[in-house]
Amino acid sequence: MSMSSTSPAMRVSETTEPEIMKTLAVSAVIWQLMLNVMLLHYQTTAQKIEIGILYDLVKFSAPMFIFAIAFDLAKLRDTHYSHYVWHKTKEIIGPYLAWTVVYMIVFNIGNYSTIWNIFKGVVLGGAAPQLWYTIMMFQIHLLLPLLTGLVLFLLKNKKNIIPVMIITVVVYAALIAWYSIYAFHNIQHPGLIQWDRLLFMFGIYAVLGVIASTYNQQWRALVERIRWWVLPVAGLLFILVNHELFSFGLDTLNLADASYLKWSMVLFNIALIIIVYGCTVSLIKSDSKTLPYFKFIAKYAFRAYLASYFALRLTVALIGDYFSDIPLGLNLIMTFGITAFLSFAIVYIVEWICKKIMALFRRSASTSSHQTTTQGEGASSEALAKNSIVNSRNTSAARDK
Fold first, then answer.
1. Which helix (H) or strand (E) is 339 found in, with range?
2. What is the pLDDT of residues 288-344, one digit of tens each?
3. Which of 16, 263, 303, 364 has its CA 20 to 30 A from that of 341?
4. Is residue 103 within 8 Å of residue 131, measured between CB atoms?
5. What kind and span of H or E run contains 23?
6. How far is Cα 66 from Cα 92, in angstroms, rounded to an integer?
7. What is the pLDDT of residue 372?
8. pLDDT tens by residue, 232-283
């Protein structure tokens, strides 16, 4: 199958590269949540090392989400901004608020006892460990005009990619330096670490996504040419990020120390994006039988991500007291499988229920409208009949006269 026949621009119904990447990003979110729970139950040195290595490996969820979203947004043209933002608000913020309420009521991780704490929990995405992604990712939709302007600037001249990348790298280097010095492990001002909720802290992936989408054919060719060369580089970077994580000490291993916002992790994630994108191109070009499954998963990916922590807690509760007794490797596979299934099952069932409720409302509204119309028509017919009788009587009276 030729590349053109599988191009998202040519065949919208086909599975696209960003859709596949989003499904992998959702899986990475579930793994991150799961590994944090595992660390509470498995405390030997070997188990901590295994958990830490796996955590670094799946620490690509936010960068890959941002890259994939920016890739799609770069293709939008002549979009009515206010309508677009309203649509995305309903699509993203609506479910986010619903799940935030669920998490605050059911788990209350942040001890939400005051109005101020509740407000902060909503704004910062603190009701569940993964909700901060939503706060950060929604911002990219608000910046659609800026992304469109960047696309138009890049289209003027392909060489404009060079200054864009130089400026992006310089600004991002300054942000990473500031975060490393003033925010990361700042005991006096712990709130500074929440700057990772701001999109510009992940801006380099958005710019990369826009460039990849704007010059997609050239990007594909480049990725297919270098992806296997990038693989050993990614391996070396992976060793480095693991070394950095374990250098904080295994006795007090904290997976939060595997920060997104350090150059080793940034370069590792860019390498992973190149490798994964290359694999998605190969899947699409070969018309893999897995593509429909990726498309289905991508459809529910965002909502499943919102439900993932609820599904994980439910999974741990179902396994019960045996959770810590199961070998770590087996438990990882089993817990991920059950959690992923429950995440998608929950949102699928919720969608089905909502559709049924909406259908009932529409049917009820349609019935009421029909009854009103029928009553109105009946009243009109009765009035016409009365008028006819009156006119007939008046005519008869006139004749008698």
1. helix 328-400
2. 888 888 888 888 889 999 999 999 999 999 998 889 899 999 999 999 999 999 999
3. 16
4. yes
5. helix 17-41
6. 15
7. 59
8. 999 999 999 999 999 998 888 999 899 999 999 999 999 999 999 999 999 9
CA 143 – CA 147 distance, rounded (Å): 6
Q: Is 15 left (phi over 0), alpha (psi -120 to 50) or beta?
A: beta
- Cβ-count burial of 185 within 10 angstroms (0-12 exposed, 13-18 middle, 19+ buried)? exposed
Nearest Cα residue to 303 out of 228, 234, 354? 354
DSSP 290-328: THHHHHHHHHHHHHHHHHHHHHHHHHHHHHGGGGGGS-H
How large is the C-alpha radius of gyration of the chain?
28
Taking the C-alpha atoms of residue 31 and residue 36, their distance in angstroms, rounded to an integer, is 9
Instruction: For the chain, give the longest Cα–Cα distance.
Output: 117
71: Cα within 13 Å, side-chain hemisphere: 25
How many angstroms separate the Cα of 205 from the Cα of each of 61, 137, 298, 377? 12, 12, 20, 62
Tell me the pLDDT tens digit for each residue of 59-68.
999 999 999 9
Q: CA nearest 140: which of 195, 202, 192, 76? A: 202
**Residue with tokens 């569940």, as numbered in its chain:** 128
DSSP 394: H
Residue keyed to tokens 């603190």: 126
Cβ atoms of 62 and 314 within 8 Å: the answer is no
CA 319 – CA 306 distance, rounded (Å)? 22
Tokens of 340: 């992923």
Q: Give the pLDDT score at 9.
A: 38
Q: How confident is the model at residue 113 (pLDDT cuts 50, 70, 90)?
A: confident
Assigned token pair, 172: 């991002």
Residue spans per domain, the chain: 15-357
Share of the chain above pLDDT 90, in %: 60
Tell me the CA end-to-end span of the chain in Å, nearest whole number: 94
